[in-house]
Amino acid sequence: MFILSLHYPPNLVDYFAGLFPFITFDAVPTDDLYNYMFDYENIDDEGLNELFENVGYEFTTTVGNMGSMFLFMLITPVMTLFHFAVLRFCKEKPPCTSLKRSCRTRSQNYVDSLFWNGTIGSIDAGYIVLSLIAMLQVYFPRLGPEYTAAENFFTVLGILILIVNCLFPLAIALLYIVKLKSTKPLPDLTPGLSDKDLEITYHTTDLDYIKTQIYKESDHKQFMEKYGILLEEINLKKLGKTLSILTVLFTILRKFSISIGVLVLQGYPSFSIFLFNFTSLFMMMWIIYLEPYKNKGYQRMIVG
Fold first, then answer.
1. For residue 1, what pLDDT is reported?
2. What is the DSSP string of 188-210?
3. What is the largest CA-CA distance in the chain?
4. Residue 293 above 70 pLDDT?
5. What distance in Å separates the CA atoms of residue 150 and residue 75, rounded to the nearest whole number?
6. What is the pLDDT of residues 22-56, one digit of tens each?
7. Using an 8 Å Cβ cutoff, are 204 and 215 in contact?
8. Nearest residue to 251 (alpha-carbon basis) of 226, 270, 272, 233
9. pTM of the predicted model, to two decimals?
10. Phi first, then psi: what are they for 73, rounded to 5°?
11. N- or C-end of the chain: fewer Cβ atoms within 10 A?
């Protein structure tokens, strides 16, 4: 809101400017590092205007505005490659020591759970900020031989981030439509399993209950641990599949509309405020009518 062409009290602007590093997860000082990596001192770059600079967008290039978020983007693929290498090295072949089994288990847990949920959660958490940073770069592209290699890289990175963020709502919707719908074949529980074995394994001997309830709940748990970070607060049993996916989709699209309104309409505050109010009112009506979240406190926070 403080990027719109309106007049704000200076103390209020300074207060929110101080919060900006926490909002963007800019936890690590990166000025000296980026100057060493990209020679930033010799790049002619400054914020779009004073309003953008007041809240921390001091550049139009992606890496300068991203701060330590860029470092986290670099670390993620490195960590993923490391865990894939561990899985390849620690195969279930002799000699299979307890250390190799432990390393394999931890790496498998990362690949199965933290990689997907972590990636989805990171994109969602920084969605508005990353979309705005990418749009700034695309608005002021630096491609061509007249620019440095670093400036060309910043522009390509901005385009890639914007493409990912534009496809993110569609990708999430398709992922949840496919994965929530798909089910594995039911296990054959009868051969070799006595009533005692069933009781120990499933705490019941009712085969119908095991096949229709326990197995499905286990399958759903695996889905949530791997992909379901955006559905954790949503009451799936109450809403059902379609409304749950729509709730996630509308939430993401609202964030995207905010970033569009901030940059594209920043010179027209009346239109920006109308866009913000319209999307907020729509989400408020959606939440009040459906009550999609499990936690009432979380629901009141979203509405408020």
1. 46
2. --STT--HHHHHHHHS---HHHI
3. 77
4. yes
5. 19
6. 555 566 677 788 888 888 778 888 776 776 766 66
7. no
8. 233
9. 0.75
10. -65, -35
11. C
